[in-house]
Amino acid sequence: MTAALISWGKGRRAAAAIGAVSLGLITLSACEKPTALATVTVGTTTVQSEVTPGCDGEGKVLDKKTIESCITKQGGKSITVHPGEKVRVGVDPEVAESGWIVIGGGPVMREPSKATYRTFDTDALFAQQNPQTGQTTYAKSVTLQVAELGDGAGGPKAMWHFTLKQKD
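The chain above was modelled as a monomer; its predicted structure follows.
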């Protein structure tokens, strides 16, 4: 009688293990790969965002029409910046491997970065230069764009948007 109970218990454990593995595989197959995150930190405040909807090439360079649409997008998560504060921008390691740039009121990086974060001066992010006169003015609000670059000069693979608001 003891032998019957032992073999019956092993069968139940084996069935439970098979059930757990099956449930785990079903759960994993239903999950989508999460998109990369970009993070903006000012002082002790941090905002984090996934790729802007419509601006994710899923690993491939965005086509020209999509790039034009993404460049003109406004908004995203918002953060307030006081004059003189540092703005820290961070990206996931996979984005850093590809290379990335930041655009504020105008380009603020001379070349793409392969680091996972960079620090910027508020003045550089809010500065806007008039192309006709060359005069620099400072905006009260700016859309900060973070772009993951593709291979070569093909353009961005993904873009994130944040709104920086300058506090008086």
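Residues 18 and 163 are 49 Å apart (CA to CA).
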